[in-house]
Structures are given as structure tokens and as C-alpha cells.
Amino acid sequence: MSKTKDFLKSFLDRTLLGSKEGRQAKYDESKKSFLGMPLPELGVSEFLQMPDRSGAIKRQEERTKEKKEGSSTLGDPYSRDQYNKDIRNMLLTNTVLRDYEAGREKARNLDMMRQTLPLVDMYAETAAQRKLMEDRSSPTKISQQILRARQGEAALMNAIANQGNTAVNISTAGLAPRGRAGGR
Question: Which of 24, 29, 45, 79 is an S-S bond match for 50, by CB 3.0 to 4.6 Å?
Fold first, then answer.
């Protein structure tokens, strides 16, 4: 019964019902935190026989304070020279990678062209043969070809006839008298 009373008294001291000093003391000595806010212990860790971490937390805080104080002796953590070297190395690495990728892309494109060019040539040849087959078997194309052949033949015959007329004209012109001697 006395344990329960002691527990309830310490519980009330830690909550809003207790004194301000008691709450502040328990707040400061609390060992656990939830989302960055310390939570009261309520004697659970002692009941579960959990280790007291307050000493470890103090040592950790001391170490972080020492590191913060010691960091000023190390010098400026921001080194412009090192930063520039890192940037230059990064740019050089990126350039090398881009060049390699461009070379690989070129090789892939050339390989694709080597594979597809014969197919394109074969398709073009097939299309040309198909067009010729259409021209050979199309009645319209056949009649056009016959008409062209007849027109060419007529033009040739006309040229031959014109040539004959010209020869006759030349020969008669040479036989006719010229000037006053026997002529008009």
C-alpha cells in the first residue's frame, strides 16, 4: 500500500496537479523523449529493471561540446581550393562519361544503319519493280505507249516527207533558167 501511495504522490508531482518545482525537476531528469519532447519516467524503467541512461547521455553531451570547441582549432571547414578541385574533377568525369556515351550512341546508330540499309534498298527495288509491272500490264499505260510510238512514227514519216520535198525543190530550182538568158 505504501508503494502505491509513493507512486501516486510522485505521479502527481510529475503531472499538472503537482508543484511547479517537482514538475520541472522531473522534466529535467526524464530519461526518455518522444518526438524531441522529454516524457516523464513514471518509474516504469525501474519496474522493468531497465538501465539508467542519464550518465551516458551526459557523457555524450560532453563529447559533443568538446567536438564543437575543438572544431574551431581545426580551421575553416570550408576550403575553396578543395571545393574547386572537387568541381573540376566532377566536370572532367562528366565530360569523359558524356564522350563515352556519345561514342556508344554513334556505334549503335551505325550498327542500326548497317542492318536497315539493305532492307531499305530491297524495299525500294521491290517498289520500282511493282511500278514497272503496273506500267506493263495497265491498259491505260499500254495505250499511252502505243500512242507515243505512233506519234514518233508519224513525226519520223513527216520528217522524211519534208526531206523529199526539200530535195525536189532544190533540184527544180537548179534546172530553171536564171536571169535574161532564156528566162523571163
Answer: 45
Residue with cell 572544431: 71
pTM value? 0.29
**Same domain flag for 53 and 116:** no
Q: Are 28 and 40 in contact (CB under 8 A)?
A: no
- 33: part of which helix (H) or strand (E)? strand 32-34
Identify whether residues 90 and 34 lie together within a single domain: no
Within a domain: 6: yes
Q: What is the pLDDT along the chain (184 residues), one digit of tens a residue?
A: 788 878 777 776 666 555 666 656 665 665 555 555 555 556 665 566 566 667 778 888 888 887 776 555 555 667 888 889 999 999 999 999 999 999 999 999 999 999 999 999 999 999 999 888 877 777 888 888 889 999 999 999 999 999 988 888 887 776 666 666 555 5
| Shared domain check, 68 and 17 | yes
The candidate with the shortest Cα–Cα distance to 7, out of 47, 62, 39, 34, is 47
Instruction: Show the domain range for 19.
Output: 2-72
